[in-house]
Design a protein that fits this description.
single chain, 199 residues, alpha/beta, Rossmann fold, 9 helices, 43% helix
């Protein structure tokens, strides 16, 4: 039995932190997992900037409410879910994900959680498990699933490489050049056809 594991940001919805960077005018917040492979380092950097500027969960959620799925993403996801089980594996946080999941028709997502103070300040974060995307793919495989995985960033590579088929979607030139063995797509129709062919 097959299950498709998809990244969220950059694949189905715009990058939340880039949108927040644009909303706040803080360019440092544009840094994402496309730029920084070390997620802990990236999150500590982000939390320090939020603290410096007095920004918290409330302000980020206001930005998220204005984010829509990428054009064609909902249709792609619906067509894929009609053929195979789909699980979104994301390093985002449950406090961020709900408005986006609603706009995508409530697909299943496994993500992380933020530690938030009473005043709304984000004080830390908790990963669901170590190497969460790879660990989840391995767990699915251990209970009889064959996985197909796709993403756009450094933190997606392990789950992609561990799966029976893996793809890059709207990734960076640097990642595509470093992994020429991975089929790379930029439009949903070709992406969908490649995933379905791998089933």
């Amino acid at each position: 039995m097959n299950i498709v594991c998809l990244d969220l940001e950059g694949v189905l919805v715009p990058e939340i932190w880039i949108a927040f960077s644009e909303a706040t005018g803080i360019p440092e917040l544009k840094r994402t997992t496309r730029d920084e492979p070390d997620y802990d380092k990236l999150m500590k950097f982000r939390l320090e900037i939020l603290k410096e500027h007095g920004l918290g969960l409330k302000e980020i959620r206001e930005t998220i409410r204005g984010i829509d799925p990428l054009p064609g993403a909902a249709e792609f996801l619906n067509a894929l879910r009609a053929r195979v089980q789909v699980l979104i594996l994301s390093d985002t946080f449950e406090q961020f994900a709900s408005p986006l999941m609603e706009k995508l028709g409530w697909p299943t997502i496994f993500c992380n959680s933020l530690e938030v103070a009473a005043d709304g300040a984000i004080t830390g974060y908790r990963m669901r498990c170590e190497k969460s995307k790879l660990t989840t793919v391995r767990a699915l495989q251990s209970i009889g699933f064959e996985t197909i995985a796709a993403g756009d960033s450094f933190n997606d590579l392990a789950m992609i490489e561990a799966s029976k088929a893996g793809f890059l979607f709207r990734s960076t030139d640097a990642i595509k050049n470093a992994h020429p063995e991975l089929p790379a797509f930029d439009d949903y129709d070709a992406f969908l056809a490649a995933i379905l062919a791998a089933l």
